Amino acid sequence: EAQVTQNPRYLITVTGKKLTVTCSQNMNHEYMSWYRQDPGLGLRQIYYSMNVEVTDKGDVPEGYKVSRKEKRNFPLILESPSPNQTSLYFCASSIGRGWETQYFGPGTRLLVL
Amino acid sequence: EDQVTQSPEALRLQEGESSSLNCSYTVSGLRGLFWYRQDPGKGPEFLFTLYSAGEEKEKERLKATLTKKESFLHITAPKPEDSATYLCAVRVLGWGKFQFGAGTQVVVTP
User: Which of A73, A111, B84, B89 is most buried per CB count within 10 Å?
Assistant: First the structure.
């Protein structure tokens, strides 16, 4: 089954404790992206990637890092999480340059205390 | 600054009562306008892509249209299963940058 998977689905952590949210797709998509979703603000793009080792910043990259060492994986790293990074995070992937169809993962709900 | 605004924020419809959702945008260099549906607790699900003014796309009870400043998602004779949050997004200049609106939450009652 074609899908985007994220792990963990739920995470409670404390300020400053480094964490990684994994994202993996099995559709051989070149393009991948991370978003955060907050009430009233909609989805905001954090980082996106065209292919292995090619990434760029979205609208809200501060406090986040990404890494694209393999085509199928695009982990999101929070080196020193803060409470304002409490949010619902989505990973997405797309096959072509037109980003015609972005397939979204199920989401990771993060609470930073 | 690129901006995407959706209205209304919420919409309550009776089954069969057609309506329209609006997505207005101010962007420099539109590279596509996208509609997604999001059910509670799930990731957004792609519905349509529109590229140029005058373009229309349909899927079941949904029809999306595009002008130079806004897009409409028309829901014809909605059913309760059409209840969801509908998100509008634009792809702007560059190869992968997106701006999303805040969404319209639609509730269809029997």
Answer: B89
